[in-house]
Design brief:
With about 200 residues, the protein is α+β, with helices and mostly antiparallel strands. It has three helices and ten strands, in the order αβαββββββββαβ. The strands form three sheets. Strands 1-2-9-6 form a four-stranded antiparallel β-sheet, with helices on one face. A four-stranded antiparallel β-sheet has the order 7-8-3-10, with no helix packed on it. A two-stranded antiparallel ribbon has the order 4-5.
Length: about 200
C-alpha cells in the first residue's frame, strides 16, 4: 500500500508540474512585406478605375503607343490618347513629359513641325495633382531643328497608399501656316512624347 501511495504522490507532483506549464499567454506573430508598385504609360482608352490602369499596364510590353493619321495641316486639337499613372510606393512620384517636334528627312533636308501638347485630368484620385498645360506651341514648320521641349511636370503625387491618375492628351498644329509653308509629301513624319517618373 505504501508503494501505491508513493506512486500516487509522484504522479500528483507530475500533474501539478504539467498543469503549471500552460499558465500565462503566448502569441503567434504574423509579419508581411508589401512591395511598392508603379505602372505608367500611354494607352488608347480612357482607364476610369485604378484596376483598369494596373491591368492594362502590368505587362512589360505595355505603356508605349503609336498614333497615326495626324493632320499636320489641321487647326483643331486632335486626340492622341491617354497617359496613366498607378503607384503605391511610399516615395512621392513626379511625372515629366519631354516632347520632340514631328519631323521627316527627305533627301538632305529635315522638316520639323512643332505642336502644342494639351493634357487634362480625365480620371483618378485627388492625391495626384496635375501640372500646367499646355507644353510647347503650334508654330509653323521649319528646316532647322528647334530641339526638344524642356522636361515639364504633368503629375505629382501628394500622399502614401494608392495614387492614380489618367490624363487625356491632345495635340494642335499650326495648320494654315503649315499648309502655306508647303510640307513635302511623306507618311513618315514622326515625333515623340517621353514620360519619365522620378521618386523623391
Amino acid at each position: 500500500m505504501k508503494k501505491i501511495i508513493a506512486i500516487l504522490v509522484v504522479l500528483s507532483v507530475m500533474f501539478v508540474a504539467f498543469a503549471e506549464t500552460g499558465i500565462g499567454s503566448t502569441q503567434l506573430t504574423l509579419q508581411a512585406e508589401v512591395a511598392g508598385k508603379l505602372y505608367h504609360g500611354f494607352t488608347a482608352a480612357d482607364n476610369t478605375t485604378a484596376n483598369d490602369v494596373k491591368s492594362e499596364l502590368s505587362t512589360s510590353e505595355s505603356g508605349n503607343r503609336t498614333v497615326t493619321a495626324l493632320d499636320l495641316e489641321g487647326t483643331d486639337y486632335q486626340s492622341i490618347g491617354y497617359y496613366n499613372l498607378y503607384t503605391t510606393g511610399n516615395a512621392q512620384a513626379t511625372v515629366k513629359f519631354t516632347t520632340t517636334p514631328m519631323s521627316v528627312t527627305i533627301d538632305t533636308t529635315t522638316y520639323y513641325v512643332p505642336y502644342e501638347l494639351k493634357f487634362v485630368a480625365s480620371s483618378g484620385l485627388s492625391n495626384v495633382t496635375v501640372g500646367t498645360s499646355p507644353i510647347g506651341a503650334a508654330t509653323v514648320a521649319v528646316t532647322s531643328d528647334p530641339g526638344s521641349s524642356a522636361a515639364t511636370t504633368v503629375l505629382t503625387t501628394t500622399s502614401n497608399g494608392l495614387r492614380w491618375k489618367t490624363l487625356a492628351l491632345s495635340a494642335k498644329f499650326a495648320g494654315a501656316l503649315n499648309e502655306t509653308f508647303g510640307l513635302p509629301e511623306s507618311e513618315d513624319y514622326e515625333g515623340t512624347i517621353v514620360a519619365a517618373v522620378t521618386a523623391e
